[in-house]
Amino acid sequence: QVQLVESGGGLVQAGGSLRLSCAASGLTFTSYSMGWFRQAPGKEREFVAAIGWSGGSTYYADSVKGRFTISRDNTKKMAYLQMNTLKPEDTAVYYCAARLAGGKYEDWGQGTQVTVSS
């Protein structure tokens, strides 16, 4: 049974930084691409960033490009999202997700709240 557990959220002032972590278990981690998504109040969940199984390929939403960095540590079965120069519009619940090659994101964490004050 795949389990994803996010941590690292919190309250930060605009311009600040946070690092989110996602601990994965119950899966062959290197078989999965990992993604980060977010959902703000009253809005649909949106893609933030993704990383391939080896860490060699990364993808970002335009809204976070240049500010956020996704990474992974396959030896620890961990994925990370380093968020710099945070803006109030980054306020959301952030979710970690996993998908097999060619598949959809079907495994999700419970989310971690990120609040950026102006």
Summarize the structure in words.
With 118 residues, the chain is mainly beta. Helices cover 0% and strands 53% of the residues. It has no helices and 11 strands. Strands 2, 4, 5, 6, 9, 10 and 11 form a 7-stranded mixed beta sheet that branches. The chain has a 4-stranded antiparallel beta sheet with strand order 1-3-8-7, with no helix packed on it. Strand 4 (32-39) and strand 5 form a beta hairpin. It is globular. The model has no long low-confidence stretch (mean pLDDT 97).
Task: Report the β-strand fraction as a percent range.
Answer: over 45%
Over all CA atoms, what is the radius of gyration?
A: 13 Å
Low-confidence stretches: none
Mean pLDDT: 97
The level of helicity is under 10%
Order of helices and strands: EEEEEEEEEEE
**Overall outline:** globular
Report the count of strand segments. 11
* Count of alpha and pi helical runs: 0
| Alpha-carbon distance between the two ends | 40 Å
Largest sheet: 7 strands, mixed
What structural class do helix, strand and pairing data support?
mainly beta
